[in-house]
Design goal:
The protein is mainly β. Helix content is about 0%, strand content about 50%. The strands form two sheets. Strands 2, 3, 4, 6 and 7 form a five-stranded antiparallel sheet that branches.
């Protein structure tokens, strides 16, 4: 069994700061985790998530959402195959992702 540790750090969004109240969802197989919603165009979540998996042939779905009054709006997505993630025992191994809509 493999343990995947993810830290959702921050984003830089284009547009006025009062326009956004954003959050991130992470989905791996049947498990979905969500950050808190943060207002502004430079949200910083700094939240850690852990997933256990035995299937390395799948991937992690990462979504950026803008929280609305009635409906939330999807702003960007990224599919990250688990086989492309560098396996490491280091605590501070990280990389940045560009999300696309």
């Amino acid at each position: 069994m493999s343990l995947l540790c993810i830290r959702v750090r921050k984003a830089r969004l284009t547009g006025p700061a009062d326009r956004y109240n954003s959050y991130v969802t992470l989905k791996l197989q049947n498990v979905k985790s969500t950050t808190i919603a943060v207002k502004g165009n430079t949200p910083a979540w700094e939240q850690d998530f852990m997933f256990e998996t035995i299937r390395m042939d799948t991937g992690l779905a990462i979504e950026l959402w803008d929280k609305g009054m009635l409906w939330d709006r999807l702003m960007g997505t990224h599919w990250l195959p688990l086989m492309k993630i560098h396996h490491s025992n280091q605590v501070y191994y990280f990389f940045y992702l560009d999300l696309t809509t």
